[in-house]
């Protein structure tokens, strides 16, 4: 869940299996073969903001290679939220959502998935996870390193080898820049989508 650019990223979950850009189709097929009565005909819901159709279409194509047929369902934002519930509309099998951080700390992404979070549309609830979030909120840690360790425990509950996997991480937003050849060092866009021009350097 925690993206590069968040302080402590290299200590939180730098070796996550979800970080490589390419998936392992053979392993995915092996996992599917072990599932009893897997649902292979699903509806994928997404809202009509820019770029989301392209994301949904890419998912649809990749799942087809796995033997999963997905029907894309695009909705305007208010209808989309209504379908997600609670309770979710019975037509919803899978949906696509994203998050832009309010402040540059991993807790702002992780705390979305506590049992009583208004942003948790997954129906997932893990009391051990909630206890770790509560510990961070109370400041019950000695220093940043210990806090990053708590974040790592949350990441493992969600996405570790024995994790619950309440969501499937698919991407972080990236930005393509076109620059003059006179730019020696470029600007930075942080996880809050804030552009920092303070480090831009021009060649003399």
Q: What structural class do helix, strand and pairing data support?
A: alpha/beta
Count of DSSP-assigned helices: 7
Portion of residues in beta strands equals: 5-15%
Oligomer: single chain
Query: What is the alpha-carbon Rg in Å?
Result: 19 Å
Low-confidence stretches: none
Level of helix content?
25-40%
Report on this structure.
By secondary structure, the protein is α/β, with parallel strands linked by helices. The chain has a domain at about 40-95. It is about 35% helix and about 10% strand. The protein has seven helices and seven strands; from the N terminus they run ααβαβαβαααββββ. The protein has a three-stranded parallel β-sheet with strand order 2-1-3. It is globular, with a radius of gyration of 19 Å. About 15% of the residues are buried.
Note the topology.
Layout: H1 9-12, H2 25-34, E1 41-47, H3 52-65, E2 69-75, H4 77-84, E3 94-95, H5 107-110, H6 127-137, H7 144-159, E4 183-185, E5 188-189, E6 195-196, E7 201-202
Parallel strand pairs: 1-2, 1-3
Antiparallel strand pairs: 4-7, 5-6
Helix pairs in contact: 6-7
Features:
two-stranded antiparallel sheet, 204 residues, 3-stranded parallel beta sheet, alpha/beta, 33% helix, 7 strands
Summarize it:
With 204 residues, the protein is of the alpha/beta class. Helix content is 33%, strand content 12%.
